[in-house]
Amino acid sequence: MIAAGVKGMTKILIKNGEIITADDNNEIIYGDLLIENDCITQIAPQIDAYHVDQVIEARGKTVIPGFIQTHIHLCQTIFRGQADDMELLDWLKRRIWPLEAAHDEESNYYSAMLGLGELIQGGTTTIVDMETVHHTDAAFQAIAASGIRALSGKVMMDYGDETPLLLQENTDDSVQESVDLLEKWHDFDNGRIKYAFSPRFVISCSEALLTQVRDLSAHYGVHIHSHAAESSGEIEIVRNRTGMRNVTYLDYLGLASERLILAHCIWLDDEEKSIIKDRRVKVSHAPGSNLKLASGIADVPEMMNQGAKVSLGADGAPCNNNLNMLNEMRLAAGIHKPAHGAAAMNAQTVFRMATIEGAKAIGMEDEIGSLEVGKKADLSILDMNDFHVFPSYDVDPVSRIVYAAAASDVETTIINGKVIMKNREIKNIDKNIVLKEADKSIKRLMRRMPHIQYVYNEDK
Ligand SMILES: [Zn+2]
């Protein structure tokens, strides 16, 4: 018999699991994990089930810290399959920007919900998300309703004329709208949601905008989330405009700090690598996107050897085409081996990149990223009793997750102490409605696409 918990307190007990902690010693504990309200309060071989509200039996199952994806675009999820087999700048100009310009509030909401459903089903519990220019409030509404932990922000684009008119912003308006969203959403639900300033990349941002973002990020103590050195074409454009390489320019403007999260960082010279290390800039490695857009392979093993902080993200659905950390871990483990040897980027290293290193990227390593007493209860339970992950005998549990597990093995996802998904059923997202509305939304956007206005000639 299980008695009701203390009034106002929710207790969840996970029993008999294989608990991969990702703590400093990479300890694996066989036993129980107790959650009280939003925190882990006990991990031990045996915890009595007195006064708990819910017992989750995890015998034969694996409990892991929730994945932290440090580069995601929820606004692009409904563009999945609409921009395959193209290179970055073409992909942006011909498909992604026009589609982003065509978004309305409803389409952005369902795009976010579609992505959030996929993320939660794959065991991702925290995301760093970049939205589009407009309708970001709708994405925050979806994030709030889903229960996921997130840093998000509206994208900022006030420079260049190769974007649809609808995406071209005035500097002051872009900054003001960002600050308004920050004031509304930053620290929502006791800090589950945070705001991050999101200048898209140097190409689409004026110096005035970037320096204001620098000052506002320091003023509010929030992160800056951007892209850098993703394609060779991009760094040529930056060099022609500024006379500097991409990361050098960001440092010259004073943006390079521990609050800066830069996706990709493929085309770097030695000076830029030193800037990233010395200024403690966080790198988000997105191998799936980097391969599909033919962007290149970031020198992650070297950056990590030098002491840079590197985590993982799937990027957007139209350049991946999934938001699945298990894919990203396997790619991160695999693509560097031909150049660096089979022992480089081993399973333990990439598992930590997907968990505790992601927490470090957002300055939350004391709260999430590993399963330890006192930390937030962000975790997932995998049922790996299936053909594709057997045998289990004498197989390293972390290697089993990184090299063999599938997103569909994730059975339960808990975020901030709340059971967000159980037996693959997501509580706060109605799958039937989201799938139907996602299709309706992309159909509406595709109809709008030919009417998207540019100031430049398409053939240029
Ligand atoms: Zn991106």
Brief overview:
By secondary structure, the chain is of the alpha/beta class. It is built from 17 helices and 18 strands.
Low-confidence stretches: 1-5
Question: What is the H level of CATH, i.e. the homologous superfamily of the largest domain?
Answer: Metal-dependent hydrolases
Could you tell me the CATH topology label of the largest domain: TIM Barrel
Distance between the termini: 73 Å
SS summary, helix count: 17
Number of structural units classed as domains: 2
Q: Write down the CATH class of the largest domain.
A: Alpha Beta
CATH architecture of the largest domain: Alpha-Beta Barrel
Describe this protein's structure.
With 460 residues, the protein is of the alpha/beta class. The protein has two domains: 11-65 and 373-426, Urease, subunit C, domain 1 (Roll), CATH 2.30.40; 67-361, Alpha-Beta Barrel (TIM Barrel). It contains 17 helices and 18 strands. The strands form two sheets. Strands 1, 2, 3, 4, 5, 15, 16, 17 and 18 form a nine-stranded mixed sheet that branches. Strands 6, 7, 8, 9, 10, 11, 12, 13 and 14 form a nine-stranded parallel sheet that branches. β7 (124-130), α3 (136-146) and β8 form a beta-alpha-beta unit. The longest helix has 18 residues, at 431-448. It starts with 10 loop residues before the first strand and ends in a 12-residue tail after the last helix. Residues 1-5 have low confidence and may be disordered.
